[in-house]
Every structure is written in C-alpha cells, then in structure tokens.
Amino acid sequence: MLFNVISISEVCPKRFELPNLPSAFCYSAVESAFPEGMTPEQYNDVVPGFCDQHKAGASIATINTQVEQNAIAELLDSGRVKIRDTVMLGLTKFPLKENESSDWKWVDGSPVTFTHWSDEWEAEGNKQQAVMFKALGWKWAPWNTNVPHMLCQYEMCAWREQKSPMECYPDYYY
C-alpha cells in the first residue's frame, strides 16, 4: 500500500501543528492566565472547556502512549509551537464530579493508562495539576501555580468533516 503525505493545512486548523510522528491530533499551546492555587470548583469551571473557547472542538491534551508523548515532545522542541518552558496537560487530581476520588485523572474522563513522571517530582502529593517541563526533557511534574500555556489538542480533520482521521484520510500517513 502506498501512503500519500498530506500537508498540515489539509489536516490541522489554524494555529495547530501536526507532530512528525504518528498522532490522531494536531496540537497548539494556548496562552492561559489561571489564578494561583485554583480551587476544584474554579478548575472544573475553567480548564476542561478552555481549549474549546479558542477553537471549537479542541480540548486540553491527554497523552495515552509513549508514541504520543514522543510526538508531542518533538513538536514542542521543534519551535513550531511557541511556548517558554512549560505547558499544562489535562491531568488533574481535582475531583471532576461530586464524591470522585482525588487520584490522577484526565479531564475528559478517560483513564490514566500511561504516565511520564519525572523521577524527582512523582512523589509530590499535594499538587493538583500536571505540566510538562522542557528542562526535564518534557517529563511530567505535578504543579499548583499558574502555567503560561495550556497544551490543546484537536482531532485531525474533525474540523473538516466531523469524522475520525482514518475516515477522512484512510490511505494517508500522519
């Protein structure tokens, strides 16, 4: 089977970039100014829908495999996504629903099946959000303070036809 290569403009909406490794998502770092020490209520009111306010259908990034982690790290290192040194992920210990546990969870409700914690930060028990640090080789760290950018993801070609990437481009390599 031959694969066709498609350009970013065919798959990603404006301000979103396609990683060089296979991924079902385009990514963008969106400037954020959240209050220091957010309460669970503030977090739940603001963070899960933040990316969608900047591009309908976008969501805060979830990372479920090492391949996704590598693709995002490579994209952030490439300079195509403009950030300083830290991006917020959609991973939180805040209860997203009443009576929910305070274990780590993705804000979209999907289970945490993969982690990429930095060894020196993993044990931080009182932090409520997760970020990726450039200085740690894009490993994850628990965090509580304001982060200047949120990593947003957008499903490839959903913005064109409201279909999955494979439905949109079945013979293409991403």
UniProtKB/TrEMBL annotation:
Gene3D superfamilies: Mannose-Binding Protein A, subunit A
SMART domains: CLECT (SM00034)
Domain C-type lectin: 50-140
InterPro entries documented for this protein: C-type_lectin-like, C-type_lectin-like/link_sf, CTDL_fold
CDD domains (alphabetical): CLECT
Source superkingdom: Eukaryota
Name this protein carries in UniProt: C-type lectin domain-containing protein
Organism: Steinernema hermaphroditum
